Amino acid sequence: MQLRKIFFSFVLVVISLASQTLLAQDKYVWKQVSAAGYTYKYVTGDPMQARFYTLANGLTVILSPNHKEPRVSVRIAVRAGSNTDPRDHTGLAHYLEHLLFKGTDQFGSLDWAKEKPYLDQIDGLYEQYNSTKDSAKRRVIYHRIDSVSGLASKYAIANEYDKMMANIGSTGTNAHTAVEETVYEEDIPSNAMDKFLVVQAERFRDPILRLFHTELEAVYEEKNRTLDNDGNKMYEAMLHSLFPTHNYGQQTTIGTIEHLKNPSLKAIRDYYHKYYVPNNMAIIMAGDIDPDQLIKKVDQAFAYMKRQPVQLYNPAPEKPLTAPIVKDIFGPSAENMRICYRTPAATTHDAMVLDLISSVLSNGKAGLLDLNLNKQQKVQGSQAGLLQYKDYGVFILVGNARQGQTLEEVKDLLMQQVDLLKKGNFDESLIKAIVANAKLSLLEELEKNPTRTGALVNGFIKHRGEKWDKDVSDLDDQAKVSKAEIMAIANKYLGNNYVLLYKRKGEDKNIVKVDKPAITPVETNAGKQSPFVKKIEGMSVSDMHPQWLDFSSGIVRAKAGIADVLYVPNKENELFHLYYRLEMGSRNNKLLPLAAQYFQFLGTDKYSSEQISKEFYNIACNFSINATADVTTVSITGLQENFDKAAALFEDILANCRPDTAALASLKGRILKARSNAKLNKQAILQGLINYARYGEKNPYNDVLTTDELNNLKAEDLVNILHGLLSYKHSIIYYGKLPVESFTSTIASVHKLPAAFTTAPARKEYPFTSQTTSQVLFANYDMVQAEICWIRNAAPYDVNKEPVVDVFDNYFGGGMGSIVFQTIRESKALAYSTFATYGTPARKEDPYYILAYIGCQADKMADALKGMNDLLNELPVSDKGFELAKVSLKKDIETERVTQDGIVFSYLAAKDKGLDYDQRKTEYEALDKLSMEDVKRFHQDQLSGKKYTYCVVASDKKVNMDDLKKVGEVKVLSLEEVFGY
Question: Model confidence over 193-217: pLDDT tens digits?
């Protein structure tokens, strides 16, 4: 798990190129420019070329052009989160985030004049509910809320916002709330910008808090999910202990159960007017934009917003921790531990050094934890990272115990590495290597628009973007840090002032779940539209033309010895990607994944395993071997300038790696521990049930080495597999700067091939089940919620079915505007998370499959089962929803751009389906010919009235097993049956 905030690491990544461009002047400075009637600031050398505008009303607009694809990543950020929740209404910022999807008086309503009186009644009823303590009276009031909400819903159009976004081709419609921020997310086609701005300007004008009690129930479900998440419990305990005064530790983002049960629409509305003001918000865009034109449009759309004074959260400073705080956290998942230190504010010099220190300890390759603990397998796993907020940061070390090891022993090993750091027992050249590898990450990540918007949001939240020059110079600053300064900062902050958390396996006796209220399903008015939406749909947009792949001309085919070469030139940056791809995997030899895992711990007669990691890290290159069921891929990536060295070094290691009995013994122990941990993981258990449903008692998930087979395995067995790996037929894939002739001659000299390839072992087949009766596969797990999957193997693969399959998925179960989401969550409030899909196989030999999912409170299981079964058996019809499903799919195809080595992997994926062409073209042409009747017929033929296997993970103490017996014969599976060990 990467602990540091992902957008913070993006900032680090973003900076490296700038340090190369401005090496001579060694600085990044703010400049101010006026263009197209607007003044903006920018930082010299910023590789994102971000422009920072402040409009007359105080709204921040940050624009970063990137023309790689005709799409734009958008983030609308508010500098308010759970820190600014009222003390008596925690969780309020998160509530509000949900409600910003419900519309205004202009959209989301069929008749606002008729809807408003009911919403006013609901406002008053909730205020009564909050001030009433008598439980009987509260039930009466809630029944009234439920009744009036049903009347109001007759005028509400659920998910009309999501439907508008789907109509303009947006993907990734979402939002998140954290301690200091609420951020709304979209990814839109660049030709839809005018429509998008009209919708967003209206969305934030005056949001209406409609469909509240069903959405509130979704938040209850979300709360219950956190109660089942031991990692979340660790996170909350960490913040609570480190910050006894600051709201980081005193107010959780999702709120307390007491406050969740007593919401106030008045308080939510007050919060909106207090913090959702232009001088506290930013609109951030990266992608296919012209900033000079776009800033005018943004200004015109949001000029109505009025600047208001904002009272920022201003906490008292935390007192220093003077002694360790030790806490035990209990739950059903695997044991682990954390050591957590409080660190300074984001904009301080010390925070920058501490981030570098986290990489000295843990960078995935050559840090102290990587080499001294992970490589030597002294623990099951360990990492370090910096979680940086605005006012403070948290420096975290995470450790997982291997078999027979206590968490206390893991803690001691981590502390030993911290002690080595503080004493300076590391090579100072590691600092330069960390910066060089950040350059490598930069070249990969900078092309991605969400990378850019993520970094810019982070800067806005932390310092309003006013210190972007410092963000851009961050890696240059890290490169100047000396070992002496690292030692000084480490000794300053990483002392006896930590919070030590032990995640123990056991019953959490503090859990109090949010109980199910009595909710009558509300009307969603699916297929109906407000006049506002009709206006948006009527706005003209410029045409967007799809780009098809030509597998003949887009890929250069060549030879290196007897191996086929698939070549795509890199005309964009200084990176290379080299792959050796074998069409054999664990189904051909179940030892292959184990051999690939073992490889990382082996040395040669020249290099130890630790030295190999250092060598690759020092040249900013990476290698890996990954074996899936059907394919084994050797990957070597990095800077083109080090291609020869990286390729030759890998070949030498693979050919000359030596058996290491001690390393294998440790690996066996860690595998056995990982297996034990998997039995404590509800997602792993559910995945096992799904495989059991699709293939039967013996399936790819549980057909693994027995414990005896694993224990009897010899080091030579795995090393022989590695030495002979590339004697099997494989293709060579290259994406890089070398001309094809230069590449083939270079690789032929490094990559020695046999005169003829060895025949691969036969692929083991697992017949798919044929579900003739309904059955329930049940696995017992100590949890608040119930996880339910519906599984059925469906028709044989047929490429001609893909258009109707994809439209059906969009319409039926693929997003927030789908039938499943609207019915299960929006109307019936049965789940926080739900979906359904008619899944397309990756191989032409495999069938389609039906997969539906609901994660719900255990006491809602019976209703959830009926709710999904009703939809599987009878399809609600919405002509408008069907057209929307087609339109959004077409726009996805029109704006998709497959580039770089993605062209090769698209070709290989098509080949697995028996195709030699870009299937998207035929699908795109077929979409306009599809009708709602086609979708109805498809549903009737493939889903309705079919028998399903129900996979259920839940606590047998919290669900009614009789409810399960009503849908099929119940088979309770032991974990040994699920996992095969």
Answer: 999 999 999 999 999 999 998 888 8
Angle at CA 327, nearest 5°, toward 323 and 328?
A: 155
Q: Per the structure block, which two tokens stand in for 636? A: 């070597």
User: Mapping DSSP to helix (H, G, I), strand (E, B) and coil, where does residue 831 land?
Assistant: coil
Nearest to 214 by CA among 272, 156, 253: 156
Query: Is residue 949, in this structure, part of any structural domain at all?
Result: yes
Structure tokens at 131: 């001030």
Distance CA 64, CA 77 (A): 16
pLDDT at 14 over 70: no
- In this structure, the number of other CB atoms found within 10 A of the CB of residue 412 comes to 11
Tell me, yes or no, whether 102 lies in a domain: no
Q: For residues 58 and 307, is the Cβ–Cβ distance under 8 A?
A: yes
Q: Are 240 and 115 in contact (CB under 8 A)?
A: no
Q: Is the pTM of this model over 0.90?
A: yes
**Helices (H), ranges, 494-562:** 531-538
- How far apart (Å, rounded) are the C-alpha atoms in residues 214 and 678? 35
Integer Cα distance of 814 and 157 in angstroms:
19
Q: What is the pLDDT of residues 391-422, one digit of tens each?
A: 999 999 999 999 999 999 999 999 999 999 99
Q: Measured in Å, how far apart are the chain's first and last C-alpha atoms?
A: 26
* The pLDDT of residue 8 is above 50: no
Residue with the two structure tokens 């009744």? 147
CATH assignment at residue 621: 3.30.830.10
CB 209 within 8 A of CB 270: no
Provide the domain count of the chain. Answer: 2
Q: What is the mean pLDDT of residues 873-883?
A: 95
Q: Ramachandran region of residue 649, left (φ > 0), alpha (ψ -120 to 50) or beta?
A: alpha
Q: Are 173 and 125 in contact (CB under 8 A)?
A: no
Residue numbers of the domain that contains 924: 775-979
Are residue 927 and residue 888 in the same domain, yes or no? yes
Helix H or strand E segment including 803 = helix 802-812
The whole-angstrom separation of Cα 338 and Cα 340 is 6
Query: 794 with 903, same domain?
Result: yes
**Strand-pair partners of 733:** 566, 579
Q: Are residues 826 and 743 in the same domain?
A: no
CA-angle at 734, arms to 731 and 738, nearest 5°: 135
Secondary structure (H, E, C), 467-511: CHHHHHCHHHHHHCCCHHHHHHHHHHHCCCCEEEEEEEECCCCCC
Give, as one character, the DSSP assignment of residue 903.
Answer: H
Query: 886 and 946: one domain?
Result: yes
SS (H, E, C) 232-243: HHHHHHHHHHHC
Backbone torsions φ then ψ of 544, nearest 5 degrees? -120, 125
What the block records as the tokens of 699 is 């399936």
Residue 342 to residues 333, 387, 659, Cα–Cα distance (Å): 26, 10, 43
The answer to whether the CB of 321 falls within 8 A of the CB of 249 is no
- Give me the count of residues in the chain: 981
Dihedral, 399, 403, 404, 405 alpha carbons, nearest 10: -10
- Dump the DSSP string for 412-452: HHHHHHHHHHHHT-S-THHHHHHHHHHHHHHHHHTT-HHHH
State both tokens at 311: 């009272």
What are the angstrom distances between the C-alpha of 518 and each of 396, 485, 506?
A: 42, 61, 32
Q: Is residue 175 one of the residues assigned to a domain?
A: no
Q: How far apart are CA 634 and CA 728, in angstroms?
A: 13
- 891 and 852 part of one domain: yes
Residue 369, domain member (yes or no): no
In percent, how much of the chain has pLDDT > 70?
Answer: 97
Dihedral in degrees, nearest 10, Cα atoms 935, 937, 942, 946: 120
User: In terms of domains, do 846 and 743 share one?
Assistant: no
Q: Where are the beta strands (DSSP E) in 597-695?
A: 621-627, 632-639
Quickly state the pLDDT bin for 516 (edges 50, 70, 90).
low
Within this chain, do residues 741 and 784 fall inside the same structural domain, yes or no?
A: no
Residues 616 and 745 reside in one and the same domain? yes
Q: Which residue has the tokens 């090993």?
A: 413
